[in-house]
Amino acid sequence: MSRSAHPAGPRHADVLPEGHYSAPPADLNALDPKVWAQTVERDTDGVVTVGGRPVTELAEEYGTPAYVLDEADFRARARAWRTAFGADADVFYAGKAFLSRAVVRWLEEEGLNLDVCSGGELATALSAGMPAERIAFHGNNKSAEEIERAVRAGVGRIVLDSFQEIVRVAHIAESLGRRQRAQIRITVGVEAHTHEFIATAHEDQKFGIPLAGGQAAEAVRRALRLDGLELVGIHSHIGSQIFDMSGFEVAAHRVVGLLKEIRDEHGIELPEIDLGGGLGIAYTSDDDPREPHEIAKALSEIVTRECESARLRTPRISVEPGRAIVGPTAFTLYEVGTVKPLDGLRTYVSVDGGMSDNIRTALYDAEYSVALVSRTSDAGPMLARVVGKHCESGDIVVKDAFLPADLAPGDLIAVPATGAYCRSMASNYNHVLRPPVVAVRDGQARVIVRRETEEDLLRLDVG
Ligand code: LLP
Fold first, then answer.
1. For a pocket test of ligand 1, which of 11, 12, 103 has the largest count of ligand atoms closer than 8 A to its C-beta?
2. Whose CA is closest to 189, among 1, 399, 460, 450?
3. Which residue, 188, 222, 270, 340, has fewest beta-carbon neighbours within 10 Å?
């Protein structure tokens, strides 16, 4: 079952190819629609616009750095997932990619459900009016307080991650006089990243209960015995930034195998399976992601085929895309502060943000694209490294990219595909203030998460 081996990496972080840059693009002013939000284009003056608003105006009004999110694109992608999966399946947006109350409302309106993995995400979802039955609660170490809040709120499912949690959730639900709908998260021995996956008998990571050694079957046995739980399904999440569907194929095969074992042992057919998230997006022009309808078709065919051969009723499928919905919808807008050519090497372009607003490059060696957006340029390409303002040499936003050689302080540049895991993983390192998220739609811009202020910082510091 093992495919080409890939560098073992954290299941919850993508492992991207070794850093090497391709040749300069033919046209440095071009904006590849693969990596930019749908409504992004250049106006006749050469200024980039999104949702009909020039970035120069946005920078003036909201300052830089700023995450600029194309609301129409977000809604369109959410709707595309919903439509692709249809009425017989559920799409749970993974809030960890980026969550705010506006986003919760858009999801609610577009008919998506929501995956949360902490009390904070749950609070955000509930405060924006997401119906609790459309929320799934995840996490490998939910606190008793978080579990109680989720059960009281009436979340649609809690995804159980360990033997201890099975008992803990059952006990809390029972003490509240509830029967909590739950899925058990299992690890199927498949780990996928980008174009490759490995299938092993055993996995060495913190999430879920291993299928190996009959542990998942034992977890099901225990959950079925507890009055506080209504076990409705099995959950599997195999990795992140995945383009290759074959990892899902192996995972579905193994999950359905467990459903069959459950049927044979207990005489019940669990009605749901969740295949998690992890679908990849284009960060650079070299990436070729799949469309939601292709993914939906592939997953439903795999599950239907596996169930037919196991003589099981096809369960209701759910998926949890985060990055694939929000990732491409936003870019980070920066102002260039300094341009420092290092002879024979590259030019360092310092911007007014950095690893505090995008840790992914430093953390995962992630690759990004970048473009000059406040004007066009006829200058030739220069090999650039876009760096931040933090006191750390690893503070790199874009490792290798071509920018016009006449780039100067005061120019605005933007890094596309920063909608997922940038604001949500942002920090206050060096007491740098976290940027706002500005949503633009039909010529209107509004702040959905405001810029952090020095007062915010000092409020937490009680002296
Ligand atoms: N469902 C579960 C159970 C997950 O653990 C995750 C991601 C998702 C869904 C959503 O995965 P997505 O479709 O967004 O790839 N910080 C890393 C990614 C961590 C993903 C954690 N779990 C990054 O910046 O690449």
1. 12
2. 1
3. 340
339 closest CA partner among 305, 375, 376, 372: 372
Element (H, E) at 306: helix 292-309
State the catalytic residues.
Answer: 391
pLDDT digits (tens, 9 = 90+) for 278-317: 999 999 999 999 999 999 999 999 999 999 999 999 999 9
Q: Residue 12 pLDDT > 70, yes or no?
A: no
Kindly report the protein residue whose alpha carbon is nearest to atom 12 of ligand 1: 278
Last residue of a domain, one of 268, 301, 327: 327
DSSP, collapsed to helix, strand or coil, labels residue 197 as strand
Does 132 share its domain with 277? yes
**Average pLDDT score, the chain:** 94
Yes or no: say if 125 and 156 are a contact pair by the CB < 8 Å rule. Answer: no
In a domain, 463, yes or no: no
Task: Mark whether 352 and 243 lie in a shared domain.
Answer: no
CA-closest residue to ligand 1 atom 20: 12
Same domain, 119 and 253: yes
Q: Could you give the angle at the alpha carbon of 82 between the alpha carbons of 77 and 86, nearest 5°? A: 150
- Asked whether residue 403 falls in the same domain as residue 335, the answer is yes
185 and 241 together in one domain: yes
Provide residues with CB under 6 Å of ligand 1.
Answer: 12-14, 94, 96-97, 115, 138, 237, 240, 276-279, 320-324, 360, 364, 420-421
Cα 237 to ligand 1 centroid, rounded to whole Å: 9
Residue nearest atom 25 of ligand 1, based on CA coordinates: 13
Task: Please say which residue of 327, 351, 372 terminates a domain.
Answer: 327
Looking at the structure of the chain, the number of domains it has is 2
Tell me the residue type at 31.
Answer: L
User: For a substitution probing ligand 1, which of 140, 320, 425 has the most ligand atoms within 8 Å of its CB?
Assistant: 320
Helices 246-266, 292-309: crossing angle, 10 deg rounding: 40
Domain containing 66 equals 41-70+328-452
Amino acid at position 41, single letter: E
Q: Could you tell me if 109 and 239 lie in one domain? A: yes
Separation between Cα atoms, residue 350 and residue 363, nearest integer Å: 19
Q: Does residue 143 share a domain with residue 57?
A: no
- Residue 323, token pair as written in the block: 């990055």
List of residues 6+ apart from 231 with CB closer than 8 A: 182, 183, 184, 220, 223, 224, 270
On whether residue 404 sits in a domain, the answer given is yes
